Amino acid sequence: HAKGDASRTVTVWTNDPKNSQLALIIMGKVQAGYSTDPPDGYVRFDQQALGLGGTKAVRIYSPDGKPFKVLATKRMQSNPNISVRTVPSSQGGFDLKVTLLKTAPVGRFADQVQLSTTLDRAQTITIPVYADVVGPLDVTPPSVSVSFRDGSPNEIPNVIQVKRRDGRAIRVLGVAADSGPVKATVKKAQGVAEPAEVEVVVKRPDTPAYGHTQLKIKTNDPQQPVVEVSISWVVPQAPPPGAQGAFPGGPPAAHP
């Protein structure tokens, strides 16, 4: 049972004709084999600036204060953008220190750090790691998803805005899509007080389909010369009379 309140029902049969069957309810609280500080046990690098890096720690300790050892530490996804190590904590237990490398690229990623310990009830501990590295450019929206329904126009336009977070001028040098029915043009190349703009037009495919592509926006920023935006589209299949469409419950989620 996971940590927290727990209850179990025990059924007892007897030879008493008036109470041939009894139900005993046992209630209690299950303690975890370990505790963490912060309590959620997560390592998060939120909105981390590109090239800055940094280190965050999670303290892992025994609830009853008993000493233990960390035998091994492993990154489950072997993400090259982080390094991990454990050191004894001055408050008891161990500090898992996770370092986001300065070379980490723009984008979001996740990993899990698995620790092997000598704790009786927590021989394996898993600590999730999340990071969101942001560059000097802000792109809105970060992705575009288009659904062609009955009555939808054959071409659906969207505008993507690109600007610097520090308010300085930015120039869009060009745009290109990997594949698919996507046409992109630079609507406004230079952005200072107002952002630069790229217009993306998705044309309805001839057959029902779901697809996606990566739009590459080239800029004059030395730290972020290329910005990628995910573009996805869906054309549901026309359902037969009295049946659901090709995508019950709605179209697939946009490609991340």
Describe this structure in words.
The structure is a single chain. The chain is mainly β and 256 residues long. The chain has no helices and 19 strands. It has a five-stranded mixed β-sheet, with no helix packed on it. Strands 3-5-8-7 form a four-stranded antiparallel β-sheet, with no helix packed on it.
Short description:
The protein is 0% helix and 57% strand.
Note the topology.
Elements: E1 4-13, E2 21-30, E3 35-37, E4 43-49, E5 54-61, E6 70-75, E7 82-88, E8 94-100, E9 107-117, E10 124-134, E11 137-140, E12 143-147, E13 155-164, E14 170-177, E15 182-188, E16 190-191, E17 196-203, E18 209-219, E19 226-235
Give me the Rg, rounded.
27 Å
DSSP helix fraction: under 10%
> Topology as H/E string?
EEEEEEEEEEEEEEEEEEE
Strand order of the largest sheet: 12-19-18-14-16
Provide the β-strand percentage band: over 45%
Which regions are unreliable across 5 or more consecutive residues at pLDDT < 50? Answer: none
What structural class results from the helix and strand content? mainly beta
Shape estimate: flat
* Terminal-residue CA separation: 34 Å
